[in-house]
Write a structure and sequence with these properties.
The chain is α/β, with parallel strands linked by helices. Helix content is 44%, strand content 18%. It has helices at 52-70, 78-89, 97-117, 121-125, 147-163, 177-191, 207-220, 234-243, 256-266, 276-279, 281-294, 307-318, 342-345, 354-360, 379-385; strands at 3-20, 25-38, 43-48, 132-138, 168-172, 196-200, 224-226, 247-250, 271-272, 334-337, 364-366. The structure holds calcium ion.
Length: 389
C-alpha cells in the first residue's frame, strides 16, 4: 500500500458570540483535519491542534513540507514515517507547529492501520481497559462584561453543565487574582452537592498569584488547578505542587517524549494533560503516556477541536491502563467543550452525540468500536466550511 495524497482541510465559521479565556477573545471556530489517501482506496483522518491562522500555516506544513516526504511510503509504516519526518524537521522546530502538523498526519495513519486491520484503534493499541469513559464539561468562558455579571453567569453555568449530566465541570479564570477567587467561589456554590469543578488559568499567573488563588481553591474544594503558570516555568510548577493541596495539572502546550521527560522529571504535575493533536500524534502520545506512568503521574488527556479529535481521545482513553490500578482506581475523564462547536456536533456522517450520551448514560460516553478512529467525516459538511488558502 502506498500514500498517494496528504490533504489538509481547514474549517471555519463565525461563532454566534465571542468567547474568551485568560489570553484573548476569539470570534471564529477553526478545525484542521488531515486526510491521507492511499492507492488501495483506504483513507485516514487526523486532526491538528491550532486555531485560526495557526491552522492555515499548519496546512502549509502538512501539504508542502510533510506530504512530499511521505508520498509513496507504506502508510502502515507509521513509526518509520514519524521518525523520518521528525528527524528532517528537527532543525526547524522540535515543538510547536511542525509537531502539530505531524500529529494530524500520524493520527490519519493510525486510522488507516485500524481500517486495514478491521479493528478499532483501542484494539490496535492493546484493548479496552474500559468501554465507556466519564466526561467532564468545560464552559464558563470569559466575556467583555463586569465582574458581577461574570459571577452570576458562572454560578448558573456551572450548575447547568452538571445538570446536563456531566460528572464535573471546568471554568476559566483570568480577570485578576482577587476577581478570580470570587468567580471560583461562585462556581463552588453552583456545583455544591452536585459534582466537582476544576479551574483553568491558561497560564496567566505569576507563581505568587497562583499561590493566592490556589489557597482559595483548597478551601473551595476544586479538584484541579490547570496551567497556573507559564509552561516554561518548571520551577513555578514544582513549588506550587509542593506547596498547595489542590492538584496541579498541565502539559497541553508540551511536545514529544523529550519535552515531556523534562516536565515529568521535574515533579511539578499531579495530573498530566497531553494533547495528542499537538504533541506528535498517537505514536508519540503512547510514548508520552508510558513516560507519565513510569513517573506514576496519572493522565487526563487534553481535548480540543472537532469530532475527529474527540473520537481519537475516546479511543486513547479506552486503551489507557489504570494507574496504579485497583478495585476503584483513578479513572481518566473525557474533556468536553460545551460551548458552540459545529465541528464537534455536525462533522460526522454519524455524530457521536456526546451530550445525548452524557444525559442518558449518567455522565459516561461509549467508545466507538468501528475500525480505526471509528468515525467518518462528512465530505459535504467539510466542503461547506472549508476555507481556501
Ligand atoms: Ca486548558
Amino acid at each position: 500500500m502506498k500514500i498517494t495524497r496528504v490533504a489538509s482541510h481547514v474549517l471555519q465559521y463565525d461563532l454566534p458570540e465571542e468567547l474568551g479565556f485568560s489570553q484573548h477573545f476569539y470570534e471564529r471556530r477553526t478545525a484542521h483535519l488531515v486526510e491521507v489517501q492511499t492507492d488501495e482506496g483506504v483513507t485516514g483522518w487526523g486532526e491538528c491542534f491550532g486555531p485560526g491562522n495557526v491552522a492555515i500555516a499548519n496546512k502549509g506544513i502538512v501539504e508542502k513540507v510533510i506530504q512530499p516526504l511521505v508520498l509513496g511510503d507504506d502508510p502502515m509504516d507509521r513509526d518509520v514515517i514519524w521518525h523520518k519526518v521528525y528527524n528532517l524537521l528537527r532543525d526547524h522546530g522540535q515543538k510547536g507547529m511542525p509537531l502539530q502538523a505531524l500529529s494530524g498526519t500520524d493520527i490519519a495513519l493510525w486510522d488507516i492501520a485500524g481500517k486495514v486491520a478491521g479493528l478499532p484503534l483501542h484494539k490496535l493499541i492493546g484493548g479496552a481497559h474500559r468501554t465507556r469513559v466519564p466526561a467532564y464539561g468545560y464552559g464558563m468562558m470569559l466575556k467583555r462584561e463586569s465582574l458581577d455579571d461574570h459571577i452570576a453567569r458562572f454560578g448558573d453555568e456551572a450548575a447547568s453543565i452538571l445538570d446536563m449530566g456531566f460528572r464535573a465541570t471546568k471554568m476559566k479564570v483570568g480577570l485578576g487574582p482577587k476577581e478570580d477567587v470570587k468567580l471560583c467561589e461562585a462556581v463552588a456554590a453552583g456545583v455544591a452537592g452536585k459534582g466537582s469543578f476544576m479551574v483553568d488559568a491558561n497560564r496567566c499567573y505569576t507563581t505568587s498569584d497562583a499561590f493566592y488563588v490556589g489557597r482559595a481553591l483548597e478551601e473551595f474544594g476544586a479538584y484541579w488547578f490547570e496551567e497556573p503558570v507559564a509552561p516554561e516555568d518548571l520551577e513555578g510548577y514544582r513549588e506550587l505542587r509542593a506547596g498547595l493541596k489542590v492538584n496541579i495539572s498541565g502539559g497541553e502546550a508540551e511536545f514529544s517524549r523529550w519535552g515531556w521527560r523534562r516536565i515529568l522529571e521535574n515533579r511539578g504535575l499531579d495530573i498530566a494533560q497531553p494533547e495528542v493533536c499537538a504533541l506528535g500524534g498517537i505514536s508519540e502520545y503512547l510514548r508520552v503516556l508510558a513516560l507519565a506512568h513510569a513517573h506514576f503521574t496519572p493522565v487526563v488527556n487534553h481535548v480540543w477541536g472537532s469530532a475527529v479529535a474527540v473520537a481519537t481521545n475516546l479511543q486513547l482513553l479506552a486503551a489507557m491502563p489504570a494507574l496504579p490500578g485497583g478495585l476503584n482506581p483513578f479513572e481518566p475523564m473525557l474533556e468536553f467543550d460545551t460551548t458552540h462547536n459545529l465541528f464537534r456536533d455536525d462533522l460526522l456522517t454519524e455524530p457521536l452525540d456526546i451530550q445525548g450520551q452524557v444525559k442518558s448514560g449518567g455522565g459516561y460516553v461509549s467508545v466507538p468500536d468501528r475500525p480505526g478512529l471509528g468515525v467518518e467525516p462528512d465530505s459535504d459538511f467539510i466542503r461547506r466550511y472549508e476555507v481556501t488558502c
